[in-house]
Write a sequence for this structure.
């Protein structure tokens, strides 16, 4: 049974009241309550048993002050002790105000500790047990050296607690101490905000570390930390600093205004970060040195003073779905023998190179985007880097530069709008290019300097300001299936003693096909200029428009020269005819026809040098299942290709399962991968409304929509997105994100098919498969469609195709019973072959 002991000055508290807190503690049994009257009590208290000290009139009414020159004010030697609503004053800011001995336990609730630290010591070895401490809604202020020091085998928890005004480190963990801190606010320390040493462990949640004189969070030795939904603001050094073999995992954390680097990982430390951001770092956003490793997913690094990401030594960095924006130096800078892997990352608006790889470092880029940088990608390492499915746009200088002696493989890269050359290969560089595009560069599409011999296959170069490919004196290499269109200078320029080999290359609409200096030795195998065989030393026939190499002198001449020709481009009129042959869809046909006319006008204005009016090619297809949405989407892509507004015009069909991941950090890369497959064509999102459920909560579909909006902006001229679904749900989808409404400005309504149109679909299917409906079967089929319920299971054209399949199966069963069926019987579909309405 709990006994209450009252402590009050003489003349107060009634009979039996104790005059000092120490007397009450000595008289108390384990589990007793000591109630203290208001006032300042100058004592050195020793809690050697399980007692609870509480202020009679609430927080701030009771002060326990250590006598001058003596410390601490409270010493805890027993288990399960507690202080409620009490203020503790230390006698010396550099000494403990509250000291907890090994094996003891203390709960501080609604308490303040001023002018001295809280010091908690645990057993030196694990066999000695642990020391347990809990601080709830407390404030630690005005200490020197440390505000809270946990040493040895301590298990501590902080809830809604503030540590402030410390002349030293805010919180120190050493030995095997473990701290779980929730809603900690730590500010104004001259040293680090939190420092971990030895083998200590930290879990930090929903907390703020602000205004530290040194690192916000410092991990040394073999320490570990997990931090979630926390902020580190304006630290005097690094935001998070890992050394030794420390480990840290950060989730949804924000690091702002670090005087040094935002994240520092050194020696053999390991950092994992997800959903985090680093902004306005005084040095690097992320610095990884030694043999340390850092893995970032869905993170942002903005406005770094030095390179946003810097790796040195043998460090390893892996970044997935991360964004680097702004900065005074490089976006990513790898030196030494470091390895950097970038997957689906974006780097924009940095003052120097987007990705710079020097010395013997290795970079692997997949599905990345570099935009608005001085230079796009610079490879200066011979160790062999790889760049795949990556876009470099709007650089002030060179798009991709491979320095002397460096080595890189480029696959499916797109370089657009470079302020100088698109791709530059320096002397002795080993470069392999497979696929990809270089377009709208102010300089040449590709420049190959003396001694360089790249292997280039399937590269398309469009609208370079100068040459498509410029080969300097003594350069070479092999160029296979190279396309050069609309070059302002000769498509291919070959200087003295250069001996490149061009195989199956096509040149179209260029000022000149081939320019050579005296002593040039190009080899041309099965190459054409505007359809005319291109042979070194033999000028191509001049066409009517006066451009050299525009057409072969005759079909037989082209054949003799080995011209295999190009696949025929689809004719716009044929495609429109194919559209109008579709059953029904009159309103959709009219809308698509209007769009085609509008885009023809836009194209003609562009060709005339006039600015194009604002135009969104993205569409919403609203209609019930089976109304032809996918068929029209596929035709729409082919129409845009015929108009020259899409490169490929292919269709990539996806739904929610292809875009939305199953865990945090999965959706962005998954959506990006699907989007990248559609580049140059149409991304058709079926049941798009499922990405914006009516009660979204934490649904990952929201992330997929946000990713799509960003990608649609980044690739607005190279993809068309069509969102399809039920009419009633598509309005909600478009309204789920402000960016969707501005991009989907037009909705095409696909109405349900009438019975006669469904009959026509069946007849079309029959004709394709060499069947014929008898007049009676046609009449009965019309009646069947007319009576068919138009509920949730009705599939419009899909239902018509299913019925046709059922009819052929029934007909096959019927004909199989005939001994010698005639040809007419084999192709006839009769009324007997129709499914019974009840079976539907």
């Amino acid at each position: 049974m709990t006994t209450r002991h009252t402590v009050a000055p003489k003349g107060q508290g009634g009979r039996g009241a104790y005059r000092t807190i120490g007397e009450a503690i000595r008289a108390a049994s384990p589990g007793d309550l000591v109630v203290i009257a208001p006032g300042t009590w100058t004592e050195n208290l020793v809690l050697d048993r399980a007692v609870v000290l509480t202020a009679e009139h609430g927080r701030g009414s009771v002060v326990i002050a250590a006598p001058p020159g003596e410390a601490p004010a409270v010493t805890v030697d027993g288990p399960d002790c507690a202080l409620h609503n009490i203020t503790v004053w230390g006698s010396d800011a550099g000494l403990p105000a509250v000291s907890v001995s090994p094996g003891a336990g203390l709960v501080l609730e609604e308490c303040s500790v001023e002018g001295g630290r809280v010091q908690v010591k645990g057993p030196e070895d694990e066999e000695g047990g642990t020391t347990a401490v809990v601080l709830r809604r407390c404030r630690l202020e005005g200490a020197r050296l440390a505000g809270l020091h946990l040493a040895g085998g301590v298990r501590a928890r902080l809830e809604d607690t503030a540590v402030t005004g410390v002349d030293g480190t805010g919180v120190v963990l050493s030995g095997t101490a473990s701290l779980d801190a929730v809603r900690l606010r730590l500010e104004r320390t001259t040293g680090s905000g939190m420092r971990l040493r030895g083998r200590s462990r930290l879990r930090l949640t929903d907390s703020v570390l602000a205004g530290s004189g040194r690192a916000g969070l410092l991990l040394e030795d073999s320490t570990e930390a997990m931090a979630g939904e926390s902020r580190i603001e304006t630290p005097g050094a690094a935001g998070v600093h890992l050394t030794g073999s420390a480990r840290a995992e950060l989730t949804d954390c924000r690091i702002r205004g670090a005087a040094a680097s935002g994240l520092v990982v050194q020696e053999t430390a390991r950092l994992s970060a997800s959903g985090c951001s680093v902004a306005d770092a005084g040095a690097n956003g992320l610095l990884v040195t030694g043999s340390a490793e850092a893995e970032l997913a869905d993170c942002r690094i903005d406005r770094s003073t030095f390179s946003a990401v810097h790796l040195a030594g043998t460090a390893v960095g892996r970044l997935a779905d991360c964004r680097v924006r702004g900065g005074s130096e490089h976006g990513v800078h790898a030196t030494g023998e470091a390895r950097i892997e970038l997957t689906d990352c974006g780097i924009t608006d940095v003052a120097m190179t987007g990705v710079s790889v020097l010395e013997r470092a290795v970079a692997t880029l997949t599905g990345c985007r570099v935009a608005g940088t001085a230079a796009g990608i610079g490879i200066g390492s011979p160790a062999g880097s790889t760049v795949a499915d990556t876009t470099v746009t709007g650089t002030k200088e060179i798009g991709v530069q491979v320095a002397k002696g460096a080595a890189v493989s480029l696959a499916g890269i797109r370089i657009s709008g470079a302020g100088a050359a698109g791709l530059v290969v320096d002397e002795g560089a080993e470069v392999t290019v497979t696929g990809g595009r270089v377009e709208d560069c102010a300089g040449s599409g590709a420049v190959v300097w003396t001694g360089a011999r790249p292997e280039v296959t399937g590269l398309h170069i469009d609208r370079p300001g100068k040459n498509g490919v410029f080969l300097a004196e003594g350069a070479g290499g092999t160029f296979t299936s190279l396309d050069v269109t609309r070059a302002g200078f000769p498509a291919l320029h070959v200087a003295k003693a250069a001996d490149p080999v061009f195989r199956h290359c096509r040149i179209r609409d260029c000022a000149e096909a081939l320019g050579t200096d005296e002593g040039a030795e190009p080899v041309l195998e099965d190459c054409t200029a505007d359809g005319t065989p291109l042979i070194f030393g033999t000028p191509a026939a001049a066409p009517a428009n006066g451009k050299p190499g525009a057409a072969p002198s005759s079909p037989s001449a082209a054949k003799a020269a080995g011209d295999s020709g190009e696949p025929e481009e689809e004719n716009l009129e044929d495609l429109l005819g194919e559209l109008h042959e579709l059953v029904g869809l009159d309103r959709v046909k009219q809308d698509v026809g209007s769009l085609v006319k509008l885009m023809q006008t836009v194209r003609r204005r562009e060709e005339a040098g006039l600015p194009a009016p604002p135009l969104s090619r993205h569409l919403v297809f609203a209609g019930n299942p089976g109304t032809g949405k996918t068929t029209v989407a596929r035709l729409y892509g082919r129409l845009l290709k015929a108009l020259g507004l899409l490169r490929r015009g292919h269709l990539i069909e996806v739904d929610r399962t292809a875009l939305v991941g199953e865990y945090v950090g999965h959706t962005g890369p998954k959506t990006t991968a699907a989007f990248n497959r559609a580049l140059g064509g149409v991304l058709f999102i079926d049941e798009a409304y499922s990405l914006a459920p009516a009660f979204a909560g934490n649904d990952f579909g929201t992330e997929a929509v946000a990713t799509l909006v960003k990608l649609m902006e980044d690739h607005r001229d190279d993809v068309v997105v069509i969102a399809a679904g039920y009419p009633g749900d598509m309005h909600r989808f478009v309204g789920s994100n402000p960016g969707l409404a501005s991009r989907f400005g037009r909705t095409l309504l696909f109405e349900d098919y009438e019975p006669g149109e469904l009959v026509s679909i069946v007849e079309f299917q029959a004709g394709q498969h060499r069947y014929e409906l008898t007049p009676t079967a046609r009449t009965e089929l019309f009646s069947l469609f007319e009576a068919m319920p138009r509920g949730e299971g009705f599939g419009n054209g899909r239902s018509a195709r299913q019925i046709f399949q059922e009819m052929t199966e029934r007909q096959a069963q019927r004909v199989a019973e005939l001994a010698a069926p005639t040809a007419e019987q084999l192709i006839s579909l009769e009324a007997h072959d129709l499914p019974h309405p009840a079976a539907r």
Q: What stands out?
A: The CA atoms of residues 161 and 812 lie 80 Å apart. Residues 586-607 form the longest helix (22 residues).
